[in-house]
Write a structure and sequence with these properties.
The complex is a heterodimer of chains A (120) and B (110). Chain A has 120 residues and is an all-beta fold. Chain A is 0% helix and 53% strand. In chain A, strands 2, 4, 5, 6, 9, 10 and 11 form a 7-stranded mixed beta sheet that branches. The chains are: A mainly beta (120), B mainly beta (110).
Chain lengths: 120, 110
């Protein structure tokens, strides 16, 4: 069992930058998996934001790429999301997840999610 | 607009077999693994089935998946009330270089 726990502010103002952290427990963040962020606006479907490998190699959703940075801190067993220039459309539950991207591809573990509301 | 296409809803009575479809393209389902995730109200998604019907521990074999070309399906046999949930398909997209999801199917057990 891999435990993923998101942390960060629940309320952020428009135009500001969101910072979230995911802490990985019971598994090594330096193993051969990608670590990703996925969000879900209230009442809507899932949207992939981006993923990172422990080496720092990252992939981003092209629709968000100009506003997103994902980083990893292996010493703390954490990876982080920064999303800038927030608008109300960024209000969502943000999930971190573990991903297999190779010969096969699977999102096999999800965090419990954290609701982020963008409002003044 | 989701890259993968799922019906918004599905329903069945207890004991029935229901299927949920997921349509994509050559850059995602046509080349890569399809995952199925389920999400109970107010909770995080969980992996239900991965490539070649690999089931995480605890997922009953009433759930099965198949794929043909650029389409995939999830089948649930012996439908139970606790199967009421939202179901999402997901796949890696080689053109977009990222994960794509279906819009989700809300399953109702009548």
């Amino acid at each position: 069992q891999v435990l993923l726990q998101e942390s960060g502010p629940g309320l952020v103002k428009p135009s500001e930058t969101l910072s979230l952290t995911c802490t990985v427990s019971t598994y090594s963040i330096t193993s051969d998996y990608y670590w990703g962020w996925i969000r879900q606006p209230p009442g809507k479907g899932l949207e992939w934001i981006g993923s990172i490998f422990h080496s720092g190699s990252a992939y981003y959703n092209s629709s968000l790429k100009s506003r997103v940075t994902i980083s990893v801190d292996t010493s703390k067993k954490q990876f982080s999301l920064r999303l800038s220039s927030l608008t109300a459309a960024d209000t969502a539950v943000y999930y971190c997840a573990r991903e297999i991207v190779g010969a096969t591809q699977t999102i096999d573990y999800w965090g419990q999610g954290t609701l982020v509301t963008v409002s003044s | 607009q989701s890259v993968l296409t799922q019906p918004p809803s599905a329903s069945g009575t207890p004991g029935q077999r229901v299927t949920i479809s997921c349509s994509g393209s050559n850059s995602n389902i046509g080349r890569n693994s399809v995952n199925w995730h389920h999400q109970l109200p107010g909770t995080a998604p969980k992996l239900l089935l991965s490539d070649d019907n690999q089931r995480p521990s605890g997922v009953p074999d009433r759930f099965s998946a198949s794929k043909s070309g650029t389409s995939a399906s999830l089948a649930i046999s012996g439908l139970q009330s606790e199967d009421e949930a939202d179901y999402y398909c997901a796949a890696w997209d080689d053109s977009l270089n990222g994960w794509v999801f279906g819009g989700g199917t809300k399953l109702t057990v009548l």
